[in-house]
């Protein structure tokens, strides 16, 4: 009797008290849910050419609850795919910890079409294994846009924890625009409910919710121009960068960084060996040198120092300084790149022939505080805010920075190196492109834009008058037009061109290496070559900045690349030359169209120039990065009496 009562009590407990719970579990075992992947938004170039698309990809998944013998099943997968059995076991164990019951564990994320047919032919003998169809990102142009587009890859644990919409094996943007625009590009998954029998065979299914595609984007990049500029850089065989920018919109038409990599390799999955080869390459193909590379600006920085001197009133354009090939400050000697000297030099000739002694004198008069303030107010020392991750802001040194970094006081001789773009100063090619654009557009510092539909974003204004800016632009024109000009390679009879070369020392050369030709110096010790320039033809204006790592002299290495790009943009020689008088915004003759994007700003008085004020206006306000303290950027730089810049 007691035994019967116990049995009846247990039966009541299971059927009545726990009945609904077990019924729910039975329904869950019969009904399964799975997410339906949403197509990622497409990306186009400015002319509507697809540069990031989706294609079907096949993966082999495993549902643990449907597998009778996991070890035999993994061995079969290894036989099919050629994967190491130990790696498959590790993948399975890791996935088992992260997925919910009846969720799939991805064992082989990328299965070829040929292998797919073999697996499908034998998969019926292996319950729990399923072929999955998922969208995979594809970049038709491959390496050409890798530094800009970036790539997608599987979400890591941190990303999955942070974003509840993500699951194991989901892909997310990891670099470039794919990363920055992740929320717009990703879209929203759908949900499907499936009814299965005890063996896991599908009986019925219904769509609970439809997937929503991600938003498509159009870039400002011109694909044909990007390809042309890349080919010109690759002819040199050097690492480097090119930025082509519209000065009145901030749109970036081309952004080249060489060498590059194939972002499709990341979308399909890199091996450990492939990743190590990219990571350890001394020419850093994973680095976007236009935004993440920071270098001494060399003589390109003389444009800023000239403008600062005019603004501060310490430069009279007609005043001359004598250059005998060197300048003495105390017991130190600072040499000009022209050891024979330039003779009497005024502002125009100082920039045209890039006389170091002239700018040593300007740096000595300005001092570190005013040069620091003017440089930071001109956008250096902070990021530009471009829609790319991991941008570097470079370095504009100061008294406090040196004291904190080295525990040393600022020395007078360092003002001289500062003025010729040597010493501690570091800038990126994109920063220089924005600065040169501001000279041409009337003084507006614009955010560089990679998305075509955006309006200009004004982040600040130069601390100079329109007339002072025009004086600097006129010297850039002379640097191209005059026979002794260092940028004379850019000269075209049908366009107004302006430029400034720069030769940035990487290390201080040994005595026996001074005077040698570039090709006679060890590659890693050769100077970096700069050319910053602009061109105006038939109402179209563009700015081009070219950096060639270890290229030697700016005009010789960067000049041919820049000239080729201008010829591509402007076409064969023909038409009439565009003079600066026909570019009225520069001289302040007509209202500047950029005025509507920013509140009117007062020119900062000379006595307050150290503050480096910039303007803000609603959504067009400068990003936070414009005002953040500058961190120390590591790079090979040089300081001392032998620094010369050309």
From TrEMBL:
Subcellular location: Cell membrane; Membrane
Pfam families: PBP_dimer, Transpeptidase
Membrane topology qualifier: Single-pass membrane protein
UniProt keyword list: Antibiotic resistance, Carboxypeptidase, Cell inner membrane, Cell membrane, Cell shape, Cell wall biogenesis/degradation, Glycosyltransferase, Hydrolase, Membrane, Peptidoglycan synthesis, Protease, Signal, Transferase, Transmembrane, Transmembrane helix
Catalytic activity line of the entry: a beta-lactam + H2O = a substituted beta-amino acid
Family under the similarity heading: Belongs to the class-D beta-lactamase family.
Name of protein: Beta-lactamase
């Amino acid at each position: 009797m007691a035994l019967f009562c116990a049995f009846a009590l247990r039966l009541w407990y299971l059927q009545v008290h726990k009945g609904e719970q077990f019924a729910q579990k039975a329904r869950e075992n019969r009904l399964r849910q799975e997410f339906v992947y949403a197509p990622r938004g497409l990306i186009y170039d400015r002319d509507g050419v697809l540069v990031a698309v989706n294609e079907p990809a096949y993966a082999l998944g495993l549902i643990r609850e449907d597998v009778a013998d996991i070890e035999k099943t993994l061995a079969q997968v290894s036989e099919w795919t050629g994967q190491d059995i130990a790696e498959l076991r590790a993948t399975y164990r890791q996935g088992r910890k992260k997925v919910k019951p009846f969720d799939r564990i991805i064992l082989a994320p990328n299965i070829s079409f040929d292998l797919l047919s073999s697996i499908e032919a034998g998969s019926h003998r292996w319950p729990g294994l399923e072929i999955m169809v998922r969208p995979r990102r594809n970049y038709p142009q491959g390496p050409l846009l890798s530094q800009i587009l970036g790539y997608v890859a599987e979400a890591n644990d941190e990303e999955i924890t942070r974003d509840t919409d993500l699951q194991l094996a989901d892909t997310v943007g990891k670099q470039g625009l794919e990363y920055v625009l992740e929320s717009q590009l990703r879209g929203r998954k759908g949900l499907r409910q499936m009814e299965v029998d005890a063996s896991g065979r599908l009986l019925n299914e219904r769509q609970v919710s439809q997937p929503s595609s991600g938003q498509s984007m159009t870039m400002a990049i011109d694909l044909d121009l990007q390809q042309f500029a890349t080919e010109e850089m690759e002819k040199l065989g050097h690492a480097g960068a090119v930025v082509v920018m519209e000065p009145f919109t901030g749109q970036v038409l081309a952004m080249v960084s060489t060498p590059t990599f194939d972002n499709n390799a990341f979308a399909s999955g890199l091996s450990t060996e492939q990743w190590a080869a990219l990571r350890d390459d001394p020419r850093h193909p994973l680095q976007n040198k236009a935004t993440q590379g920071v270098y001494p600006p060399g003589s390109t920085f003389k444009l800023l120092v000239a403008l600062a001197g005019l603004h501060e009133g310490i430069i009279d354009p007609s005043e001359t300084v004598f250059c005998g090939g060197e300048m003495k400050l105390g017991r130190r000697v600072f040499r000009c790149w022209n050891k024979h000297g330039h003779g009497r030099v005024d502002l125009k000739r100082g920039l045209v022939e890039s006389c170091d002694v002239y700018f040593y004198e300007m740096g000595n008069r300005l001092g570190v505080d005013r040069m620091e303030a003017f440089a930071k107010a001109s956008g250096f020392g902070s990021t530009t805010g471009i829609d790319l991750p991991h941008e570097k802001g470079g370095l504009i040194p100061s008294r406090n920075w040196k004291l904190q970094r080295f525990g040393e006081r600022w020395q007078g001789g360092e003002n001289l190196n500062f003025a010729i773009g040597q010493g501690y100063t570091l800038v990126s090619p994109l920063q220089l492109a924005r600065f040169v654009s501001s000279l041409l557009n009337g003084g507006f510092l614009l955010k560089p834009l990679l998305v075509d539909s955006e309006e200009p974003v004004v982040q600040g204004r130069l601390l100079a008058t329109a007339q002072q800016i025009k004086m600097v632009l006129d010297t850039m024109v002379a640097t191209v037009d005059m026979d002794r000009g260092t940028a004379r390679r850019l000269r075209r009879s049908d366009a107004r061109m302006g430029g400034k070369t720069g030769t940035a020392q990487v290390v201080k050369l040994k005595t026996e290496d001074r005077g040698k030709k570039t090709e006679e110096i060890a590659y890693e010790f050769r100077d970096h070559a700069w050319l910053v320039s602009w061109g105006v033809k038939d109402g179209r204006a563009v700015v081009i900045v070219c950096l060639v790592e270890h290229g030697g002299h700016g005009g010789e290495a960067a000049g041919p690349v820049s000239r080729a790009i201008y010829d591509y943009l402007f076409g064969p020689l023909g038409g009439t030359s565009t003079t600066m008088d026909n570019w009225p915004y520069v001289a302040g003759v007509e209202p500047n169209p950029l005025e509507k994007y920013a509140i009117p700003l007062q020119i900062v008085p000379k006595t307050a120039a150290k503050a480096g004020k910039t303007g803000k206006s609603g959504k067009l306000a400068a990003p936070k990065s414009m005002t953040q303290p500058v961190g120390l950027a590591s790079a090979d730089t040089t300081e001392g009496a032998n620094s010369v810049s050309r």
